Structure prediction request, 66 residues.
Amino acid sequence: MAPSARAAKPADHWPEPVLRSFSHLNRKIYVPMQGPSDMGASGKLERWDRMAGLIRFLKDVDAGRA
Prediction:
């Protein structure tokens, strides 16, 4: 396929503020937490489970305290 016939990359269509925000991404924090890919968690967040706290949060919301 000729280079001119290739589809544009998704980043070619992202707004400038989104592209600018990527320059501020702290990979020293992000990669250990999320892992090297957004396609699936493989870092510290992979097994992070807040379901037990969700019940308390829902009760607070229902009572108007959140």
Summary: DSSP finds three helices and no strands in the chain. The mean pLDDT is 80. The two ends are 55 Å apart (CA to CA). The chain has one domain: 13-62.
